[in-house]
């Protein structure tokens, strides 16, 4: 969360980068929108209805249209339909085919035209995109026309083939019937008296055989016709890849079905085994119910029956699945060729039987003619005419049945006409604007992140405040160096009326307004050399000059810069107070230094202890703070840098607020952010920032360098002071020791 907050502050400060990125992305988006090719879209809807279902009509029996809609989608986007549509498309609307070979036109149309079925409907939705709005509508018209032609041809092809066969048979029958009727009329003209005198009562064995063979020949002829039609329908169904199992069950008789099932390894023995197993299962389930009533569910007999029932159920389920899998395999591998072979054999046998009966009929007819003369010839002609007329009527009935059934199967209707849409659908202005804004914002955020990653410095006071989430309390300029000792080296004491001193008075006022009654204050920094001692000493002078009794405590017992500045390094000070057992009041009398500035007292760091953090965390230090707060109006604590040691975090929990000294020309941004977060993590009240070493040319922005260490033996870079390893016997002759009462 803290990382996100820091990044959000960076975004707020560097919002100019985001604005620039958005403008650049918007310019690119506008250029794309201007130069992009316009595409226009046209839509149409095709309704497909299933009005009947017959084998001869080519529609699978019981097929649901919702299951067939994906098939029609594929058909309308197939190469055959699209090639036909491309040929039907007028030349003036072939703008999208420029520079493309005719053989590749279907591929172009496949990219331009999309077909999908509306959910839970029989409606196909067609969409076409083209660079010409009129061409888009014309292409849809061509695709609809080609698709309807293909569907009609596909679903009516079998009926047309059978109709052609029957029509040819009808013509031949008409010719034969006309010949026989002419012969009959001629014979009746010659034998009118003989015929009327008793032809109906004449009996002749040869004539009776001819009559019987004539009836058998008509049945054979009808069977041949039926077998031929079924073979044609079967071949058409196979060519379309339809399921032929239902066709086999509908076209074969009982004996044929049993024979085929036996040939395929699915004879009745399998069914008998399943029936026996089902009967045994029912008996054991009945025994199970009786046993449950008598023994209970955990009885061994009940458990034995339960296991037996479970085993039989598993066997039946496995056999059922084996049968289903076998049927699926047989449909592809054996059923289709066997069914086709049987249909062809049926046609062949029917034709052979018809030829055999016809040959025998001709022989018997010749015999009857030779035996009965004119009477037999007349009867035969009458029988031939009757037979031919009956067969002719049968052919006519079949033809009428096919004509009446031609509307069954698939019907199509265009329910949504393609329309010319003058408004382009690509590129879309709204989409272009949205994508440009998103791309610009994303690019801007990436630039902000990259800038934060590469440029680790504060560029302005505003960015510093925004990144740290704390106000800038004062801008402290670069101060001159003084050669004096003690307060004579403090700028606010030496030059109280210069404009640069006003920065500390501003800091004093900002602290007063930062919270109610802030009397105990910690001054710390990110790194050594940031000027925290300079700020704390000058701020203490500013408080004293305002008439407030002020005490400043040097709590940096590792590297006591304040004590060194005031020339107070010696054997007395804060460490002495915290380590002795005397009362706080008595300890202060011997360790507080009264400065030359009225109202300002100092507690130096004292001898360097081995455990400064433990001393600052002790109860005695808390008692010391409570006592000096009762004696002084303002308590200032010069604390070590927060990133070097944790002393400042501990001290900040005991006071009213913390001021963080920052040198933008020196501190690394991430280090300062980490320092502020560390103070807040310790529960310190970060009042604000004191920006040190500011020059007039850095009013709007500033840079800095980096590098520090902190520990014993390190050269002091805090302020403009010399080596921190001077001996502890420095004199303090310019100060007089007195009590802080």
TrEMBL record:
Its EC number is 2.7.10.2. GO terms for molecular function: ATP binding; identical protein binding; non-membrane spanning protein tyrosine kinase activity. Keywords: ATP-binding, Cell inner membrane, Cell membrane, Coiled coil, Kinase, Membrane, Nucleotide-binding, Transferase, Transmembrane, Transmembrane helix, Tyrosine-protein kinase. Pfam families: AAA_31, Wzz. It comes from the Bacteria. Residues 731-741 have a biased composition (Low complexity). It is an enzyme of class 2 (transferase). CDD domains: BY-kinase. It is a multi-pass membrane protein. Residues 722-741 are annotated as: Disordered. It is found in: Cell inner membrane. Residues 163-190 form a coiled coil. Residues 523-650 form the AAA domain. The keyword Transcription does not apply. Residues 4-89 form the Polysaccharide chain length determinant N-terminal domain. It catalyses: L-tyrosyl-[protein] + ATP = O-phospho-L-tyrosyl-[protein] + ADP + H(+). GO terms for cellular component: plasma membrane. Belongs to the CpsD/CapB family. Belongs to the etk/wzc family. PANTHER family: FERRIC ENTEROBACTIN TRANSPORT PROTEIN FEPE, TYROSINE-PROTEIN KINASE. NCBIfam families: eps_fam. This is non-specific protein-tyrosine kinase. It comes from Planctopirus limnophila (strain ATCC 43296 / DSM 3776 / IFAM 1008 / Mu 290) (Planctomyces limnophilus).
């Amino acid at each position: 969360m803290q990382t996100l907050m820091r990044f959000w502050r960076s975004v707020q400060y560097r919002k100019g980068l985001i604005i620039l990125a958005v403008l650049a992305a918007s310019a690119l988006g506008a250029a794309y929108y201007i130069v992009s090719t316009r595409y226009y879209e046209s839509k149409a809807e095709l309704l497909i209805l299933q009005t009947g279902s017959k084998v001869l009509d080519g529609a699978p029996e019981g097929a649901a249209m919702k299951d067939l809609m994906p098939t029609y989608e594929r058909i309308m986007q197939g190469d055959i339909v699209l090639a036909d549509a491309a040929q039907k498309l007028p030349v003036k609307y072939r703008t999208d085919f420029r520079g493309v070979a005719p053989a590749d036109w279907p591929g172009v149309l496949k990219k331009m035209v999309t077909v999908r079925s509306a959910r839970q409907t029989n409606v196909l939705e067609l969409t076409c995109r083209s660079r010409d709005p009129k061409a888009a509508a014309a292409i849809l018209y061509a695709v609809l026309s080609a698709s309807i032609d293909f569907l009609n041809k596909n679903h009516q092809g079998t009926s047309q083939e059978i109709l052609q066969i029957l029509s040819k048979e009808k013509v031949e029958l008409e010719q034969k019937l006309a010949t026989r009727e002419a012969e009959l009329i001629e014979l009746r003209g010659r034998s009118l008296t003989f015929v009327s005198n008793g032809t109906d009562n004449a009996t002749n064995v040869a004539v009776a055989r001819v009559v019987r063979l004539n009836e058998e020949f008509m049945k054979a002829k009808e069977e041949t016709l039926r077998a031929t039609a079924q073979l044609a329908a079967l071949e058409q169904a196979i060519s379309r890849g339809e399921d032929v199992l239902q066709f086999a069950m509908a076209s074969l008789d009982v004996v044929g079905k049993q024979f085929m099932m036996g040939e395929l390894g699915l004879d009745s023995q399998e069914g008998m085994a399943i029936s026996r197993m089902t009967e045994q299962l029912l008996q054991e389930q009945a025994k199970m119910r009786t046993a449950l009533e008598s023994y209970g569910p955990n009885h061994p007999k009940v458990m034995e029956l339960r296991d037996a029932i479970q085993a039989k159920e598993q066997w039946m389920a496995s056999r059922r699945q084996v049968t289903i899998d076998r049927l699926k395999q047989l449909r592809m591998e054996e059923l289709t060729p066997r069914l086709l072979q049987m249909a062809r054999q049926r046609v062949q046998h029917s034709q052979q039987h018809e030829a055999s009966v016809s040959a025998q009929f001709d022989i018997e007819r010749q015999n009857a003619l030779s035996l009965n003369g004119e009477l037999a010839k007349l009867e035969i002609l009458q029988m031939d005419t009757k037979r031919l007329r009956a067969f002719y009527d049968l052919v006519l009935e079949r033809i009428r049945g096919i004509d009446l059934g031609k509307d069954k199967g698939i019907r199509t209707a265009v329910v949504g006409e393609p329309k010319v849409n003058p408004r382009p659908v690509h590129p879309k202005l709204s989409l272009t604007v949205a994508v440009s804004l998103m791309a610009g914002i994303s690019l801007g955020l990436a630039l902000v992140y990259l800038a934060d990653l590469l440029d680790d410095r504060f560029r302005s006071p505003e960015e510093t405040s925004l990144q740290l989430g704390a106000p800038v309390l004062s801008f402290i300029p670069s101060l001159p160096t003084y050669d004096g000792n003690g307060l004579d080296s403090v700028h606010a004491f030496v030059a109280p009326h210069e404009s640069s001193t006003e920065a500390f008075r501003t800091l004093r006022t900002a602290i007063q307004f930062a919270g109610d009654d802030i009397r105990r204050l910690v001054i710390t920094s990110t790194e050594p050399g940031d000027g925290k001692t300079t700020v704390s000493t000058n701020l203490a002078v500013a408080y004293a000059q305002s008439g407030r009794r002020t005490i400043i405590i040097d709590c940096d017992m590792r590297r006591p810069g304040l004590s060194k500045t005031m020339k107070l390094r010696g054997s007395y000070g804060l460490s002495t107070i915290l380590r002795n057992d005397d009362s706080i009041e008595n300890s202060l009398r011997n360790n507080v230094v009264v400065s030359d500035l009225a109202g300002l007292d100092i507690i130096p760091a004292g001898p360097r202890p081995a455990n400064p953090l433990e001393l600052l965390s002790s109860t005695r230090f808390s008692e010391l703070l409570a006592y000096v707060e009762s004696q002084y109006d303002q308590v200032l604590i010069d604390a070590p840098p927060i990133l070097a040691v944790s002393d400042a975090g501990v001290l900040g929990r005991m006071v009213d607020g913390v001021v963080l000294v920052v040198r933008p020309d020196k501190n690394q941004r991430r280090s300062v952010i980490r320092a502020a977060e560390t103070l807040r993590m310790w529960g310190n009240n970060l009042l604000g920032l004191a920006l040190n070493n500011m020059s007039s040319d850095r009013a709007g922005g500033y840079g800095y360098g980096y590098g520090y260490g902190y520990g014993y033996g390190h050269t002091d870079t805090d302020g403009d002071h010399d080596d921190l390893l001077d001996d502890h016997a420095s004199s303090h002759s310019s100060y007089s020791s007195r009590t802080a009462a």
